[in-house]
Amino acid sequence: MAVEGTKIREMMSGKTLEKDNIKKMYDMVQNASDAQEKKNVMKHSVFFVGQLPLKENHIVDLEQTRRILGTTVPLAKLDDYMNYLLSGLSTQTLLLRKEDGNYEVNTKYEKSVLKVRKIARAFQLEKEKDLEEEMPKAKKMYQMGTKYYHSGQFEEAAACFMNAAELAEHRMAYYSLAMMYHKGQGVDRSLEKALTFARKALVKGAVIAEPLEAQILEELKNEEK
Fold first, then answer.
1. C-alpha to C-alpha distance for 164 and 146, rounded to whole angstroms
2. What are the Cα distances from residue 30, in Å, to 26, 84, 172?
3. Residue 3, pLDDT above cutoff 70
């Protein structure tokens, strides 16, 4: 099992939906000149398509994609990196841009994409397995943070929630941090950090963070006016 895990990690290395990997993929696409380079870039880029959240009919869920990118990309650069990702994959026709502004996975590459989606899921399971050992500690830290929060000891609460998040990517710890950065409780108020943590919570499955994300986005929009 350990060997398989190593192989999976090697296959995913440099190909996850994170800031540096996305920019590298985009640059590779722009600089590929001969046929062999383009072939290698295509194989590399299929991995990015295989991790994109999809709606029905192979349509990319752009909102959820922004959330995923928003966990590693600064807010000021998020539009740029969405463009790097979508433009790079469209240049290779792995994605097809539709008239309504949406992007559709090119079914010509469906078999390759399905194979990569299985690899990406296995990689995610490997990551979750790694975090399992720390999850009991993270749960205790989250519970301790909740007690501190309700007693008004916000700095201690924020520290506990941060520990829980760092230990095991605890989704409710992410949500709690989002709320605290939004309100400036125990931490310096920061809408950008609040948004990042809200999106981390959502990516991990905490749908409770959706209204908070919407509120933060609205406040950021008003600040720009």
1. 11
2. 6, 10, 40
3. no
